[in-house]
Structure formats: C-alpha cells, structure tokens
Amino acid sequence: MAKKPSASRLMAKLKKKSKGAWKRSRESAPAAKGSMLPDGIVRGVAKLSSYKFDEDKNGNPYFMLTGIVVEPSELAGQRATASHFIKETQSKTVEQKLDGLSSDVQLLGGDVDGTEIDDLPGIIEGLVAEGPHFFFNTWKPDNGQTMVFIQGLADDWEPEEEDADEEEEDDADEDSEDEEDEDEDEGDAEEADAEDEEDEEDEDGGEDEEDEEDAEEDEDDWEPAKGDIYLYKASPRGKGKECSVSSVNKTNQTVGLKRVEDSKVFKAVAWDKLEDPA
C-alpha cells in the first residue's frame, strides 16, 4: 500500500491551489443540489460517519464526505459519499469547487464563518464526531458512477425507537462477548465531483469520474496490517482508543485488536470501524 501524503503537505497543496478562494467560499450560501430522477433516491437519509482528505493520482487534493444509509431501508448500511475534487476543469474553477465543498459542510451543520482553509479538516472531524443524519439525493449519469447530493440535516426525521433499542442491545451483547473472549487466542479475533444540474453539459465530467474511480480504488486497496495502530470505539457513544492490530482476516475484512491502554481484546472488528489516529 502506497504511503499516504501527510495532512500538512496536502493542506499546503490545497492552499496553493485555492489562492485565497476559501475566504469567498465560506461566505457562499448553502445550496442543496440534485434533482428527482426516475431511478434516483430522493430524500434518502444517511448518518455522517467518516471523511477522507487525500490527493488523486495527479496530485489534486480532494475531500470525501461519507454517510451510512439509513433510508431507504433496503439500502441500509451502504455508503453514500459526496466527493469534492479541488481542481480547475473546463466547466468549473477551483473557487466554484470550493463553493460546493463549503455548501456541503454548511448543509451538514458546519460553521465556516470567518474560518481559514486550514480549519476545514477540523470542522469536518467535528461533524463526523457528532454524526448527524442528513438527507441526500442521488443521480447516475449515463455510463457514469452514482453521484450523491447532500440536501441538509434531517431535523424532521426520527429513527424508529425499536431500532435504537435493538442497536443498544447489540452493542451490549458485543461488549459482553468481548469480555468473555478476552483470554482466547487473539488470532481468532474498513465518487466523482458532483455537478449542479442533471442537464448541465460538463465536458470534463469523464475526467472527474476517473479521478473518483482512482481515489475509490486507492481506498478499496487499503487494508490494515498486523501491528498497525488505529482508533476504535468499543461502543457508539464511547471515545476512540488506540488499538494495535493483532490479526487480519482479508476474506471477511475484519481484524483482531488489542487496546493499548489495558490490553483488552476485540475480535472480528470490521475494517470500516477503524479510524486513523490523530
């Protein structure tokens, strides 16, 4: 796996490319994008779960904002990712790309007033920690990948109480199971630049889709290795603690973990539950 660029180096690239455009983008009004399409999802609901700040194969910084789908229920658990590649194209300037990023951050509840571009990762990290539910629409262009359009916070949406109870019960069972298995063998023990309108003619759309494919391939190729350190939350309301990877199951994409502070063992943890340490 290729070594990821440091956040400071990525931020330096982003600042150089933006040339101060964030000071104007932060003032732009949030604008929900996407439209009702015959085969599209309209007002789906997802819970913000993670983000990615990286660069594509051409060295262009990008952000991916990912939520886990709650509704439609038949798609629950799938990932809904809104991507923002910060590069100039034939149809959009870097500032317009930053406008789109600023809009999505605000639609998710982020406050960008008076911020600097360096503040973006911290703002998004704070939103991920809060884990808000948001509405989204999707659209799939011809011969392209499905695009996700964030529509704003799902303030008028409430989960079914029964589902919430079941989730808490499952978490309790999992914690109990972890404690019982603590002494067992540890070896048994994680898209494209969206366009504003469906009928917008974007000559460089194929290039953006290719960038997203490359970025997603990089993400898909990633796999943890034994000895790596990640943050893992033992419960949804808990704080991420540093854990060492003790075993890797590539087939099931799970790992065995040992918590650094107390050597507690966690088995069969899904890769997407792992977080990079700060």
Quick overview:
The protein has 278 residues and is of the alpha+beta class. The protein has 6 helices and 9 strands.
Which helices and strands, and how do they pair?
Layout: H1 7-18, H2 22-25, E1 44-55, E2 61-71, E3 79-85, H3 94-107, H4 120-130, E4 133-139, E5 147-153, H5 161-180, H6 205-221, E6 229-232, E7 241-249, E8 254-259, E9 265-270
Antiparallel strand pairs: 1-2, 1-4, 2-3, 4-5, 6-7, 7-8, 8-9
Structural summary, described in words:
There is one protein chain. With 278 residues, the chain is α+β, with helices and mostly antiparallel strands. The chain is built from 6 helices and 9 strands, in the order ααβββααββααββββ. It folds into 2 domains: 7-156 and 191-221, no CATH class; 161-189 and 225-273, SH3 type barrels (Roll), CATH 2.30.30. The protein is globular, with a radius of gyration of 20 Å.
Radius of gyration: 20 Å
The coarse overall form would be: globular
DSSP strand content:
15-25%
* Structural class designation: alpha+beta
In spatial order, strands of the major sheet run 3-2-1-4-5
Number of domains: 2
> Low-confidence spans: pLDDT under 50, at least 5 residues?
34-38, 162-167, 182-203
Task: Write out key terms for the chains shown.
25% strand; 5-stranded antiparallel sheet; 28% helix; globular; 4-stranded antiparallel sheet; SH3 type barrels; 278 residues; alpha+beta
